[in-house]
Amino acid sequence: MSTTYTATAAREGRWWVLTVDGIGVTQSRTLKDAPDAARGLISAMLDVDPDEIEVNVIPQVSNGILDRVDGTRKAVVALQAMQHEVATESRAVARDLEREGLTGADIAYILEVSPQRVSQLLAPTPPVTGEVARLKNARRKQTVTH
Q1: What is the pTM of this model?
Q2: Distance (Å, whole) CA 129 – CA 18
Q3: Predicted confidence pLDDT, tens digits, the chain (146 residues)
Q4: What is 3-59's CATH number, 3.20.20.70, 3.30.2390.10, 3.40.50.300, 3.40.50.170?
């Protein structure tokens, strides 16, 4: 079972100074390396296996920036989900037009896309993976529980 610790990261010159409350202080050149540096500190100070340690690094930056970062991340996830929904509907519309006997060129004209794009839309649907799949599953769970 792992234990989660929080490390605050404050920029000092070219280094990030990492403070883990009640444990100590270490440093890292980049935020990417910060969790490993903090994990090493915690492991050494508490004499525990580093694999049993999770670290959340909170960079200290100007007020409001982290809130904006969070909002931006959420907007990107929402955009990806919307993009997937639009692509699904575009495929469905293209297939409906094809079932009505329209040519690929006519479908392209109606949808205002290239004939190559129509070919892509009419191709078998690719499997849903990654973040979009996670969002769809989360949305399904919300629908069931609410």
Answers
A1: 0.57
A2: 35
A3: 889 999 999 999 999 999 999 999 999 999 999 999 999 999 999 999 999 999 999 999 987 898 899 999 999 999 999 999 999 999 999 999 999 999 999 999 999 999 999 999 999 876 767 766 776 666 655 544 33
A4: 3.30.2390.10
